[in-house]
Amino acid sequence: MGEEQVQRFTVQSTRILGVIGLVIVAVFVLVGATGIDDSYEAPAYIVCGIVAMLLWVAVLRPSVAVEGDRLVLRNPLNTVRIPLAAIEQLVIRQWLVVSVGGRRYTNAGISRSRRQGMRDDRHTGDTGEELGALSYGGFAERRIQKLAEDARERLGVKPYSDEQEARAADVQRDWAWPEIAALCLLAVALVVTLLV
């Protein structure tokens, strides 16, 4: 591939809820900082920071994308990069579950209800009409499965082969150190301000 292609799979309703939560926290801080309704004690501002960070890591940060030949799962405190050709199985139900080399990787960035899953399972074709009848989770599942199948074909990797197992060793996990550090610092700050 000459130019690395990126396909993102995002549920906008979840992101909207996360942004609304951050706006509520910001308004709460603004009201306290301006002294409109008496200013708050220091722990209240730190709790606002913790709530904002939790909204970020739990609601806004999780996402799923395909970047070039890798499936990228951005989880609350880490990012996992999986070679598409190494994917043995992928299913989206309450969250995304990917099986690679005997290990399972999950992500809450995409989901679908049990009812949506049962309805989607009735649509087995790949025509535009069939794909249009799927829920967003069903569409994302089919699309990622197709990209994984194409990657295996392009590289000549047979499913459940030794070569696919070898590619599974190339799974990368990177920790979200800024988020981890921010949560730790805020937790320590809260304890210190409560003890003082």
UniProtKB/TrEMBL annotation:
<keyword id="KW-0472">Membrane</keyword>
<feature type="transmembrane region" description="Helical">
    <location>
        <begin position="16"/>
        <end position="36"/>
    </location>
</feature>
<feature type="transmembrane region" description="Helical">
    <location>
        <begin position="175"/>
        <end position="195"/>
    </location>
</feature>
<keyword id="KW-1133">Transmembrane helix</keyword>
<feature type="transmembrane region" description="Helical">
    <location>
        <begin position="42"/>
        <end position="60"/>
    </location>
</feature>
<keyword id="KW-0812">Transmembrane</keyword>
<protein>
    <recommendedName>
        <fullName>PH domain-containing protein</fullName>
    </recommendedName>
</protein>
